[in-house]
Design a protein that fits this description.
Elements lengths: L1 H23 L2 E15 L2 E8 L8 E4 L3 E8 L7 E4 L25 E7 L5 E7 L9 E7 L13 E10 L4 H11 L8 E4 L16 E4 L4 E8 L5 E6 L4 E6 L2 E8 L2 E3 L4 E7 L6 E9 L10 E8 L4 E2 L5 E2 L13 H9 L15 E13 L14 E7 L2 E3 L7 H7 L31 E3 L2 E4 L4 E8 L9 E4 L4 E8 L18 E2 L1 E3 L4 E8 L4 E7 L2 H6 L2 E6 L20
Amino acid sequence: MESSLRFSSLAFIALLAYFAFLASAELHVREFVIQPKPVKRLCRTHESITVNGQFPGPTLEVRNGDSLAITVINKARYNISIHWHGIRQLRNPWADGPEYITQCPIRPGQSYTYRFTIEDQEGTLWWHAHSRWLRATVYGALIIYPRLGSPYPFHMPKRDIPVLLGEWWDRNPMDVLRQAQFTGAAANVSDAYTINGQPGDLYRCSRSETVRFPIFPGETVQLRVINAGLNQQLFFSVANHQLTVVETDSAYTKPFTTSVIMIGPGQTTNVLLTANQRPGRYYMAARAYNSANAPFDNTTTTAILEYVNAPTRRGRGRGQIAPVFPVLPGFNDTATATAFTNRLRYWKRAPVPLQIDENLFFTVGLGLINCSNPNSPRCQGPNGTRFAASINNQSFVLPRRNSIMQAYYQGMPGIFTTDFPPVPPVQFDYTGNVSRGLWQPVKGTKAYKLKFKANVQIVLQDTSIVTPENHPMHLHGYQFYVVGSGFGNFNPRTDPARFNLFDPPERNTIGTPPGGWVAVRFVADNPGAWFMHCHIDSHLGWGLAMVFLVENGRGQLQSVQAPPLDLPRC
């Protein structure tokens, strides 16, 4: 009798806790109006595509457990979709956003409401357009605070500062893309980098709008750094100040201190900064980490960390003292980029899958399509070719008649095939001198099927075709553990012995070391169609992508939910 009463009391307490959790969860209802707006940068005004007239777009602040209903109203002249980068979207691929993968795009004059719930996630993520190059200006921060009463695994400062790194073109980015698609050559590089939408002091007509972050002496703040740039990995530093890394891609890390971070497109990194220097003005700056033998934007964006008691000049030439500039690594400093990445560790023991059901080996890299008429204006790549990119020699082509997820759900044939190769069709010296006969990939729309709850390992192997390069690979619908990496060709006999299966970092986007490999593991516990692609948008457009089809499990709670009624039509 006593034990049954104790059980009833525990059940009642658990029920109360559950209802308290439901009561604390909020529903955030927002409208995102996609609209052109005049934006002036670098002395010139462009009609830029924005959300609610803001560039960057609005910051979403929510808590773990909250739900969102965001109606996207398209008043621009381009089709568009919005991706909630890093949100797992459990059983709900319909809210993920990549056009022609989980939905057809929202046409001009149409709307779609993204409805989703934050489930066991907290930290810094972001949202962006997932339609061609519209994300050059259509992006914003998505900050997930812990549930009320849940602590951080570190002493949380009272103040957060979102720092969104971006790229700016001094023309319509869609025209830049259109030109590259026509010629087959590489797209023109950006004309500036930005911090929270502003280029900073080192660019023309920009000094008066440089972003300033006031700070009190002795104060500690958290910088939520997001690389929203289209095509470039970046080094980021704050002059004379150390940065304590506490989170990457919405996953806490064992804290460590550094003077510089390297952050790839799509990635987020949270750092703590303490104002412990002489009162003054200090530049925070970002510039390219360029691992490829390719043109890049070699400019530097700045903002100013400004102590509230910073002294001013006296006498003649009175005014503010010039900010101190940070020491940034060289553009091609792979050693610094690698050293930073190798220091990342999950904040506690990680639940890494140990027994692997699907062991996949993916070569990732560039390629060239041969032209029958090399002198054609449509063949302006190297030696009269067109640029391409691929995974396992498969260059991904987006469907147009339907999205992959809709075709999969409806059983519609002819949209995609499920024969994506688990290994390269030909083995070769991936990082050596590759025969030109292996440079041309095959185009297609292929997916790879995974059983529900399969334990998956993917080794992503960079190649030296065209050029070795750090490719920031992003997997939709999942977080994964980065269990190992190295330079050269992956050796399946010896390299797994060096895997970190105790506290590997958890991420949603990871760069392949240039001329090297990286291994990731995850459990396929989220049914649906999930895009995996390089987050360098030039490479994505060239075909550096594939799709995982994760099958339903048993019952409703392990199956994709029904599509919403307002899902856009193709």
